[in-house]
Structure formats: structure tokens, C-alpha cells
């Protein structure tokens, strides 16, 4: 038995399921591999780890580019997770939209801060 809800459109997800699932796993793999790379660099560094050695790990241009890619992966990963939480648990559309906009602004601000830290002299 089908139910006709009329022309009122429900504001819900647009069947993001598989695409988001794959994106979450791919970004998680990128972040995990990056973590292992940084951990290996820390473990194989002789002597104590101070600011100079830590900054040295991230001073190479390839490492800065890789870190930037991981920051972007983290943003995508966090956005998908937050959007899913808002869509699953916040039913009033205005509240959900407000929380989604706040999440986007917050994530972009965090990315700006991370990039500033990464390329600070």
C-alpha cells in the first residue's frame, strides 16, 4: 500500500550512503598512513625530540604538502560525520541548517588555523 504525502518535500539526505561511507574510509586511511609516517619519523630520530627536531620533520616542502592534504582529508572526514549526526538526530530543519552552517564555518576556521601553523616561519 503506497502512501501519498502530497507535494511537500521532506528535507533529508539525498542518498549519500555509499559515497559517504567510501569517503569516510578513504580519508581515515589517509590520516592513518600519515600518522604512521610521522610516528616513524619520530621513532627513528636520534636523541630527544625538541621543538627544533619536531619543526624539522615538517620543514620539507613535500611534508608540508602531505600535511595539507591530510588537513583537507580531516575536514572532509569531520564534515561527513557531523552532517550525518545532524541529519540523524536533529529533526527541525532550521536548527539542523543552523548547526550545519556552524559546523562548516568552524571546520573552515580550524583549517585556516592549521594552515597558518603549518606555514608559520
Structural description of this entry:
The chain has a single domain, classed as 3 helical TM bundles of succinate and fumarate reductases. The chain contains four helices and no strands. By secondary structure, it is mainly alpha-helical. The longest helix is centred in the middle third of the chain and has 29 residues, at 61-89.
Summarize the structure.
The protein has 121 residues and is an all-alpha fold. Helix content is 74%, strand content 0%.
List keywords for this structure.
single chain, 121 residues, mainly alpha, 3 helical TM bundles of succinate and fumarate reductases, 4 helices, elongated
CATH fourth-tier homologous superfamily = Fumarate reductase/succinate dehydrogenase, transmembrane subunit
Rg value:
20 Å
- The percentage of residues in β strands lies in under 5%
Give the CATH class. Answer: Mainly Alpha
Please tell me the total number of domains: 1
The tally of helices reads: 4
Number of strand elements: 0
The helix-strand sequence is: HHHH
Mean pLDDT: 88
Give the distance, in angstroms, between the N- and C-terminal Cα atoms. 67 Å
The major beta sheet can be summarized as:
none
Structural classification: mainly alpha
CATH architecture: Up-down Bundle
Look up the CATH topology: 3 helical TM bundles of succinate and fumarate reductases
Amino acid at each position: 500500500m503506497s502512501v501519498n504525502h502530497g507535494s511537500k518535500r521532506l528535507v533529508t539526505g539525498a542518498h549519500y550512503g555509499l559515497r559517504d561511507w567510501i569517503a569516510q574510509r578513504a580519508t581515515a586511511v589517509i590520516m592513518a598512513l600519515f600518522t604512521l609516517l610521522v610516528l616513524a619519523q619520530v621513532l627513528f630520530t636520534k636523541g630527544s625530540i625538541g621543538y627544533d627536531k619536531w619543526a624539522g620533520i615538517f620543514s620539507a616542502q613535500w611534508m608540508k604538502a602531505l600535511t595539507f592534504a591530510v588537513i583537507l582529508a580531516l575536514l572532509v572526514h569531520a564534515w561527513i560525520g557531523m552532517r550525518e549526526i545532524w541529519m540523524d538526530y536533529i529533526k527541525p530543519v532550521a536548527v539542523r541548517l543552523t548547526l550545519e552552517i556552524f559546523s562548516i564555518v568552524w571546520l573552515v576556521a580550524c583549517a585556516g588555523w592549521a594552515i597558518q601553523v603549518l606555514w608559520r616561519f
